[in-house]
Amino acid sequence: MSLIQCSCGECKLTTTDDYPIMSLFCACKDCRQAIKWGELRGGKTIQKLPQLIYVRSDIISVVGEKSMKPYQLRKSAKSTRVYCNKCFSILGIDHPTYADNVFMFFPYHCKTDMDLSIVPCATLNISSYPHSEPADIPTNMPIFYNFDYVQESKRFLSLPEVQEVFRDPVKNVVGKTFSTIIKNLGDIKILNLEVGAEPL
Question: Is 197 a domain residue?
């Protein structure tokens, strides 16, 4: 079991697994915009290249639901992010493609005792990287500039770690999936942020 909690300790999720399935680096505008929105309300400052952690979607304990709120960046958004409404840590992210097999979180934007020794297997959306200085990416790591081309999507989906994430669950859920927790939290708040714009 592992604990994922917000910075102020108000909200806590206990997962059945204590080791992630996959890790990535991502430079996409949506990740940066969501993190920046939280930062402007008291969350941590965004990293140059955010790290993503994917863990099995099986949560056996939820503490602080009254302080959790699900948000989407805009009506067309696919990702739903759950923030603590007190410290604006991001506790987790769900996306339809995760199919209740996994959920994702940013280890820098919450606290966890999960084993994070896993090495990221790829860097995504580097065409959106906003900094003038280059990102510190290992030379042997696959880089995906964007997913405008079918070939890039196929190359990404061919990675063994990605295949492990984007598949149907192979174990029965002991607790609740992350998507079930989102449903229990009530209406998702739509932020109506412009695509790629700095949040207010």
Answer: no
